[in-house]
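Protein entry
_____________
===
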Amino acid sequence: MLQIDTTPPLQLKGTNFGIRVVFSNEISDDALVKNFEAIPEHSYALPIGSGVVLDFQSRPCSEKLVQKILSRVVWPKGLNILAWLTSDEESEKKLSHAGFMTREPTLESPRTMGQASVILAHSLRSGQREEHSGNVVLIGHLNEGSEIFAGGSISVLGKLKGLVHAGRNGMGGVYVIAGSFEARQLRIGDKLCDQFDTDMKWWKKPVIITSEDDGLLFRDWKLEFGNEPA
């Protein structure tokens, strides 16, 4: 019987420290870099303190492969790489000697300080609800009728049409990010605004929203990309 390999070339998995990129052992180095390079930048727009772990499984990591990943993906996209993981002993030894972290990051690590995050690599449909005591990152759309409640910040990298409530436990310094803001109401901490409509300046625009004084402050997300909001 003919067997077809349906293993994806790479997978993005949410973790407490950010995103784990798992590479298939069945593709060439060139295909690996090409697929990694094709991931949209907004997929890595994580809350401050989060980062990316590269998991090569048992794949050997040659000097040429590491150079390509650095020059074509890590440096251009400004990724915060927490660790380079491989079960290939020779590769692990070379990476470690070169100064790369080759162990699983932990929440106690200074590079992963801050509230733990949950990453959802799918959209939420009407009637679906996500609750978490820390930060929530949605790599997809928050459709109308769906909800996210978080003790920390909320990042919706697609369309934000549903209800979000960030900082619901009184945590300060939180924010909401939307790849396309299309929500009718929004809550950050104890502040609620339910007067949004299609005529507002930020409608269907990428924005970052923070709580300021007696209201909510909207800013262009492009200007804030990759930086902690002031």
